[in-house]
């Protein structure tokens, strides 16, 4: 009889845990609208309409707003207009397609650093998010990196940090690119340290960036390769998550392979990771945050055009 009661109690406990409501949820997407506008814009508009129908609290775009079709002002303005059509604050962190990879597109060549400067002027002004309901953010504008931003929602801290694919713009053979990488990398680490300190009382933290940093990762136990352009960011995230002792989500894109996992379950138990969908899967995901649950970050809904 005692065993039966114990089993019933465990079943009820499991049911209660599964039914624990999220403290908040948000929508995430990235690597969107690849191809000629006449082909990719209609389904993207449909996707945004479906997301808006859910009345989202927050939208995060992890970069690569377009493919390598072009990097001209028109496509960048179009993508800004798409973000401003979401019925929620939109946190956006750039991807490599917006600037790093602009040196060679299908319809012309562009200066990557000029494109980065244009992106900063047009997307990151006024200390607020994008979207129809922009929210104020703290950012790193004084240091020259307004795209690094943070805000709090539902006692969950959200941080964007500018880390992109294509080797994070690190190229030893290109002095200008190398200089840009080293300066931004240093600023990124400082921003993460400052933001984790600012969110010390949060129930959970979400860090959004573009790059799939796991492609060249051998694991924390072996250590990041000394030449990895993601080493400093990865090490900082790991150390900060362990010091915080609360759930931390690394949200990213770049590889176009949706995944939900714990990259270092034993060594960095508080660090979780989710990769969004990407071209050709034009989808967005709703992520629910339950800080006290065994799986504090879960995909609760998938949006399609």
List keywords for this structure.
seven-stranded mixed sheet, 305 residues, five-stranded mixed sheet
Q: Any overview of this molecule?
A:
The radius of gyration is 20 Å and the shape is globular. It is an alpha/beta fold. The protein has a 7-stranded mixed beta sheet. Helix 6 packs parallel to helix 7. 43% of the residues are buried.
Write down the overall mean pLDDT.
Answer: 91
> How would you sum up the major sheet?
7 strands, mixed
Helix content: 25-40%
Distance between the termini: 53 Å
Rg calculated over all Cα atoms: 20 Å
Strand order of the largest sheet: 4-5-6-7-8-10-9
Strand residue percentage? 15-25%
Which runs of at least 5 residues are low in confidence (pLDDT < 50)? 1-17, 218-222
Give me the strand/helix succession: HEHEHEHEEEHHEHEEEEE
List the helices and strands and how they pair.
Blueprint: H1 2-18, E1 24-29, H2 37-52, E2 59-61, H3 73-83, E3 90-92, H4 112-123, E4 138-140, E5 145-153, E6 156-160, H5 165-168, H6 175-198, E7 204-208, H7 231-244, E8 248-252, E9 259-261, E10 271-275, E11 284-289, E12 297-303
Parallel strand pairs: 1-2, 2-3, 6-7, 7-8, 8-10
Antiparallel strand pairs: 1-11, 4-5, 5-6, 9-10, 11-12
Helix pairs in contact: 3-4, 6-7
Quick summary:
By secondary structure, the protein is of the alpha/beta class.
């Amino acid at each position: 009889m005692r065993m039966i009661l114990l089993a019933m109690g465990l079943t009820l406990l499991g049911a209660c845990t599964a039914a624990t409501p999220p403290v908040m949820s948000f929508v995430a997407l990235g690597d969107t609208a690849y191809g000629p506008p006449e082909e990719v814009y209609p389904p993207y508009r449909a996707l945004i309409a479906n997301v808006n129908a859910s009345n989202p609290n927050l939208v995060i775009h992890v970069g690569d707003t377009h493919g390598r079709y072009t990097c001209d002002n028109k496509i960048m303005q179009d993508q800004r207009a798409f973000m401003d059509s979401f019925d929620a604050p939109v946190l956006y962190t750039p991807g490599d397609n917006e600037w790093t990879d602009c040196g060679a597109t299908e319809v012309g060549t562009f200066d990557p650093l000029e494109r980065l400067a244009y992106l900063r002027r047009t997307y990151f002004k006024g200390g607020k998010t994008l979207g129809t309901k922009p929210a104020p953010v703290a950012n790193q504008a004084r240091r020259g990196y307004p795209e690094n931003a943070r805000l709090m929602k539902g006692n969950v801290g959200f941080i964007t940090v500018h880390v992109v694919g294509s080797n994070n713009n690190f190229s030893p053979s290109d002095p200008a690119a190398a200089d840009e990488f080293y300066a931004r990398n240093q600023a990124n680490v400082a921003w993460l340290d400052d933001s984790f300190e600012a969110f010390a009382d949060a129930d959970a933290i979400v860090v959004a960036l573009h790059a799939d940093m796991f492609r060249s990762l051998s694991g924390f136990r072996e250590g990041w390769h000394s030449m990895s352009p993601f080493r400093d960011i990865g090490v900082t995230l790991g150390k900060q998550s362990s010091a915080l002792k609360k759930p931390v989500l690394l949200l990213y894109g770049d590889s176009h392979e949706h995944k939900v996992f714990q990259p270092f379950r034993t060594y960095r138990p508080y660090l979780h990771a989710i990769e969004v969908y990407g071209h050709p899967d034009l989808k967005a995901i709703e992520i629910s945050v339950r800080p006290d649950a065994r799986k504090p970050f879960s995909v609760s809904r998938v949006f399609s055009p």
